[in-house]
Design goal:
Layout (H helix, E strand, L loop, with lengths): L5 E4 H8 L12 E4 H13 L7 E7 L5 H8 L3 H4 L3 H4 L8 H6 L5 E11 L4 H29 L1
Parallel strand pairs: 2-3
Antiparallel strand pairs: 1-4, 3-4
């Protein structure tokens, strides 16, 4: 899981699940939820489809607990530091105007994560380090793009 975590409202969580935010700032390259990605991956394994090397960026949007909501409302710095966007100088809380548009008073977290799949054969074991480097470079690039856009 990377550090791109920020608070969102229910409408954005629904839009993300429907794939409507995949081209929006902060959601780029996150085309499906981690649940959908893992379900697809497991179905492919069960159907004995050939495992291919791939890097998948996905998202998750759990609802904040009452305790987390309270910490965000109180602007608790220790808690806010757990949100990647706060560490980049942004405000992890949902904008007041955005919340007014929502039919819910609940807040959700937008988190990004990545999955690297490497089919295990004698040849791929030797290139495993190269794939790890590629994944790390991809994450760094995505973080730098998001940081640049925030500034």
């Amino acid at each position: 899981m990377d550090g791109e975590i920020e608070s969102r409202d229910k409408r954005n969580s629904k839009k993300a699940a429907e794939g409507k935010l995949k081209n929006e700032f902060g959601w780029k390259n996150e085309e499906e939820s981690i649940n959908d990605d893992l379900e697809r991956f497991l179905i492919n394994l069960q159907n004995q489809k050939k495992v291919k090397e791939e890097i998948v960026e996905s998202f998750f949007t759990p609802k904040l607990t009452n305790e987390e909501l309270k910490l965000v409302q109180e602007r608790n710095q220790e808690h806010l530091r757990t949100y990647g966007v706060h560490c980049l100088g942004g405000n992890p809380d949902v904008d007041v105007e955005e919340m007014k548009k929502s039919d819910s008073k609940f807040k959700y977290v937008h988190g990004g994560c990545g999955r690297l799949t490497i089919p295990l054969t004698l040849e791929t074991i030797q290139t495993k380090d190269k794939a790890k480097d590629e994944l790390q470079n991809a994450k760094i690039t995505i973080r730098e793009e998001k940081k640049t856009k925030m500034l």
